[in-house]
Design brief:
Helices cover 35% and strands 15% of the residues. The radius of gyration is 23 Å and the shape is elongated. The termini are close together. Helix 10 packs across helix 11 and helix 12 runs parallel beside helix 13. The chain has a 6-stranded parallel beta sheet. A 6-stranded parallel beta sheet has the order 9-8-7-13-14-15, sandwiched between helices. It has a 3-stranded antiparallel beta sheet with strand order 11-10-12. The chain folds into 2 domains: 168 residues, Phosphoglycerate kinase, N-terminal domain (Rossmann fold); 204 residues, Phosphoglycerate kinase, N-terminal domain (Rossmann fold). It is α/β, with parallel strands linked by helices. Strand 5, helix 7 and strand 6 form a beta-alpha-beta unit. The structure holds adenosine monophosphate.
């Protein structure tokens, strides 16, 4: 069911409570070292302020586990918002996120002013999805806007709880995640190609099982390759193997065969004697990896095969690097795949990069603005790809 977004309702002059993802990295002096998440919220903030609304922002930061940890307070975010929003008449930092004083500040808040609530997770009730606590948050405003995609896979008071107590809609950022991740998985333009890599089969079992019923082609890379190859009786040397996931790899390959899905595995590899920048990278022109050596990236034949498949796609979803891309000499496979996805995007293909390390890889290669959509949530985007309902989205109003 499609969900209402902030532009689908009349918010003029109404008091808005907006859940953001201000879980920003801080250095020892509590300076924000990367303000991408703060900047990402600005579009919706400006829209709300332009509609003459008093705006209350809330977020978690780190893992205070239900107690007040001053080093995890949101003041650095308030300071950054003041710098980024010179037109906002005021950015007030609240002493807490609930309680009499906060209620009074919220009541007195004027259109164009922002009140940033203190870290929600200073209260255990937030992660417990306590209805009373959610009610206290809801009582501060008339409309709830969800913008924190990174936490919508959790049923917390500020995701699921508050959204059933107020008219709740998606902000621009969340709307974009729903549009691209949702459409890519539920309603893809075909051929639909999934590229799955990364460290472990076990972390992506549900994604593999969900996507194998939807895609035309599944491309496998990264360390999860070797569990698949091992299950086919191919030798993998000392490459990463998850014995417990061999059954899953077989199941996915059987399903691919039954569904007439192309499941592509590497035909050659880059190998090394250790996963270390000092190790020598060698090519092995066969799917088998010699004893004692480790597969660290896909080889040139495999790159050509994967790039050709990417060129034939209309929709691409990518999660997980093709090799140990953090080390330059093992990064070629991931880089060439990223380049091919960027080129395909330029030719009209919808490309969705689903969170975590593939996002880091695309950013490292400077290709981020050449993809259709780069998801902002690691865990949440994986759960989307698993086909799960995300509680913070389910709770929003249906269209
Ligand atoms: P994930 O978080 O599951 O997407 O895994 C990402 C991690 O997988 C990255 O840190 C990569 O270095 C790692 N990785 C990719 N390929 C390999 C490989 N062949 N051997 C070991 N680690 C790998």
């Amino acid at each position: 069911m499609a969900k209402l977004s902030i532009t689908d309702i009349d918010i003029k002059g109404k008091k808005v409570l907006m859940r953001c993802d201000y879980n920003v990295p801080l250095d020892k002096n509590r300076n924000i070292t990367d303000d991408t998440r703060v900047k990402a919220s600005l579009k919706t903030i400006k829209y709300v302020l332009d509609n003459n609304c008093p705006l209350i922002l809330c977020s978690h930061l780190g893992r205070p586990k239900g107690s007040v940890k001053p080093e995890l307070g949101l003041k650095p975010v308030a300071d950054r918002l003041r710098e980024l929003l010179p037109d906002a008449s005021k950015v007030i930092m609240a002493p807490d996120c609930v309680g009499g004083e906060v209620k009074k500040l919220a009541e007195e808040l004027k259109p164009g002013e922002i009140l940033l609530l203190e870290n929600l997770r200073f209260h255990k009730e937030e992660t417990d999805n306590d209805a009373g606590f959610a009610g206290k948050l809801a009582s501060l405003a008339e409309i709830f806007v969800q913008e924190a995609f990174g936490t919508v896979h959790r049923a917390h008071a500020s995701t699921a709880g508050v959204a059933v107590q107020l008219p709740a809609v998606a902000g621009f950022l969340l709307q974009k995640e729903i549009k691209y991740l949702g459409n890519a998985v539920k309603n893809p333009q075909k051929p639909f190609v999934a590229i799955l890599g990364g460290a472990k089969v076990s972390g992506k079992i549900a994604v593999l099982k969900n996507l194998i019923d939807k895609v035309d082609t599944m491309i496998i890379g990264g360390a999860m390759t070797y569990t698949f190859l091992k299950s086919k009786g191919i030798t993998i040397g000392n490459s990463l193997l998850e014995e417990d996931s061999i059954g899953v790899a077989r199941e996915v390959m059987d399903k691919a065969f039954k569904n007439n899905v192309k499941l592509l595995l590497p035909d050659d590899h880059i190998i090394a004697d250790k996963v270390d920048a000092g190790a020598e990278a060698k090519e092995v022109s066969d799917a088998n990896i010699p004893d004692g050596l480790i597969g660290v990236d896909i080889g040139p034949k495999t790159i050509r095969k994967y790039v050709a498949e990417i060129k034939s796609a209309k929709t691409i979803v990518w999660n997980g690097p093709m090799g140990v891309f953090e080390i330059d000499k093992f990064a070629k496979g991931t880089f060439e795949v990223a380049k091919a996805v960027a080129e395909a995007t330029g030719n009209g293909v919808v490309s969705v990069i689903g969170g975590g390390d593939s996002v880091a890889a695309v950013n490292k290669m400077g290709l981020n603005d050449r993809m259709t959509h780069i998801s902002t949530g690691g865990g949440a985007s994986l759960e989307f790809l698993e086909g799960k309902d995300l509680p913070g989205i389910t709770a929003l109003k249906d269209k």
